[in-house]
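tokens incoming
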């Protein structure tokens, strides 16, 4: 099974997670603070398949840990645990590089399902990279290139690294190009979530993708908002 690092300073929470994840067959290690987690992941180069990262940590918080991992081109899947459910805090988590978030207190079954989903996507990505030839999974539009194998979006000279969740969302929007996609559809079809999830998190993903894709993110041409419904991807917008 997979090797998971839990970064959590509250021992009873960390040990409870460890017990339940080990019961699922995973190998689990615990770090009590962000500095120790970064030391293990970056400087010591320990190999993990996923990080469960609490936001409220002593010293370096979870946002800083995720951001530093991405700055060092470490794109291990990160599930962020936060007591902060406000949209601006969720956005900050995604901006720092988290792949998913779960507000505290959380349902254990949902947490395990989220972890399983991230691990499946990681496994799928590795399989694709190993089995497909270069350029086998690219999408080109308006002088931009999305490389789903490398999880990269190239826009001119700029290269943006995508998280697994950003990549999954963009792929789904591209596949359904030209028609509006609802937030509920995204939750169910992209991430397999049927529980009561705050759909504003999807809006935050769109904000990030627009920064990568759009010349003017505040006036999008490719990732359009369909008021009261959701979003629509347009590869080649009509010129007026």
């Amino acid at each position: 099974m997979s090797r998971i690092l839990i970064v959590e300073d509250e021992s009873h929470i960390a040990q409870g997670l460890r017990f339940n994840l080990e019961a699922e067959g995973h190998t689990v290690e615990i770090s009590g603070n962000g500095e120790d987690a970064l030391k293990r992941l970056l400087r010591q180069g320990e190999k993990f398949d996923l990080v469960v990262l609490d936001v409220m940590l002593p010293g370096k918080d979870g946002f800083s840990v995720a951001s530093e991992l991405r700055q060092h081109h470490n794109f291990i899947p990160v599930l962020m645990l936060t007591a902060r459910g406000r949209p601006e805090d969720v956005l900050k988590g995604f901006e720092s590089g988290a792949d998913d978030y779960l507000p505290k207190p959380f349902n254990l079954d949902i947490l395990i399902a989220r972890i399983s989903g991230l691990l499946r996507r990681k496994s799928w990505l590795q399989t694709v990279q190993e089995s497909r030839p270069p350029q086998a999974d690219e999408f080109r539009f308006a002088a931009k290139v999305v490389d789903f194998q490398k999880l990269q979006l190239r826009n001119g000279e700029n290269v943006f690294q995508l998280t697994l969740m950003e990549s999954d969302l963009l792929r789904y929007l591209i596949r359904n190009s030209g028609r509006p996609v609802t937030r509920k559809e995204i939750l169910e079809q992209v991430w397999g979530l049927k529980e009561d999830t705050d759909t504003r998190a999807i809006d935050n993903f769109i904000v990030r993708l627009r920064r990568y894709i759009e010349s003017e993110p505040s006036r999008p041409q490719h990732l359009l908002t369909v008021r009261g419904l959701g979003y629509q991807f347009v590869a080649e917008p009509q010129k007026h």
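note: The mean pLDDT is 86.
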